[in-house]
Design a protein that fits this description.
With about 280 residues, this protein is an alpha/beta fold. The protein is built from eight helices and ten strands. Strand 4 (about 90-95), helix 4 and strand 5 form a beta-alpha-beta unit. Helix 7 (about 220-230) crosses helix 8. The chain is globular, with a radius of gyration of 19 Å. InterPro entries: Rossmann-like_a/b/a_fold, Universal_stress_UspA, UspA.
Length: about 280
């Protein structure tokens, strides 16, 4: 599991939701919590005092060690640099989960950090319908055979083993993006066979680690099926890769990850595979 987590904050509702959830984790796991507030270089440093104080209160109530700092610069750059230079194991961020002029800065920053972070990013939506339970009992991992999905599965299995939780390996056959209609039985069968193989491989990997696992193949819109399956299983966490397969055989992930982040009813851990050598 994690030993040091970074929680960027801007005093918004989503950021406070992330702080609260990070506090629950820290209270049970005795983690060190790094709280970071990033301000514009032309801003008054005093503007950061309230968000930092609120963050210290959230995390401090847990009894966990707390380190808080104020940095200046571009938020995503400052967050990624801080994570790299302070050897944090994960970043916990909030997001409002909507687009448009009214979207909070932290929302767009979260998506940028998810794309580029070398460590897992735990994203918490600041919405009433989001389940934020800890410890964890049920995890859902969308799998498609890509490097990033494989890395997400490895991370999910480590988390599940720590919690003695069950992992659901889910593959979604979404034929719409590749232009396959229901009448094209041969191509559809090929996708279904591949999805089933990926799921079976994931379940086998879990069992080899001593983790309880369930496999499922669903059909339809990928992000919708991930959300509905997660709700049906009353899961506590979704763990998924930041990118997926591309081209004709693409099954899920990539842009799907960002859509899941905006609509998920549980916290979501995103995992980026190491760069290929």
């Amino acid at each position: 599991m994690f030993e040091r987590i970074l929680v960027p904050t801007d005093g918004s509702g989503p950021a406070n939701a992330a702080l609260e959830y990070a506090g629950e984790i820290a209270a049970r796991e005795n983690l060190t919590v790094h709280i970071l507030h990033v301000i514009d270089p032309d801003a008054d440093p005093a503007d950061a005092s309230e968000p930092i104080a609120e963050g210290r209160d959230w995390a401090g109530d847990t009894g966990a060690p707390v380190i808080d700092e104020v940095h200046t610069g571009e938020p995503q750059e400052a967050i990624l640099e801080y994570a790299a230079t302070h050897d944090v194991d994960a970043i916990v961020m909030g997001t409002r989960g909507r687009r448009g002029v009214g979207r909070l800065l932290l929302g767009s920053v979260t998506e940028a950090v998810v794309r580029d972070a070398a460590v897992p990013v735990l994203v918490v939506r600041g919405a009433a319908e989001v389940r934020r339970r800890y410890p964890l009992e049920t995890l859902v991992v969308p799998v498609d055979g890509s490097r990033h999905a494989d890395a997400a599965l490895e991370q999910a299995l480590e988390i599940a083993r720590h919690h003695d939780a069950t992992v659901h390996c889910l593959s979604v056959v979404d034929v719409a993006p590749v232009g396959i209609d229901d009448g094209n039985d041969l191509r559809l069968e090929r996708l279904e066979q591949y999805a089933r193989q990926v799921v079976d491989d994931g379940v086998q990997q879990a069992e080899e680690m001593g983790v309880d696992a369930v496999g499922a193949v669903q059909h339809g819109s990928t992000q919708r099926q991930i959300r509905e399956y997660t709700d049906d299983e009353d899961a506590d966490l979704v763990v998924m890769g930041t990118h997926g397969r591309s081209g004709l055989d693409r099954l899920l992930l990539g842009s799907v990850t960002e859509r899941v982040l905006r609509t998920a009813t549980t916290p979501v851990v995103t995992v980026r595979a190491p760069a290929e050598e």
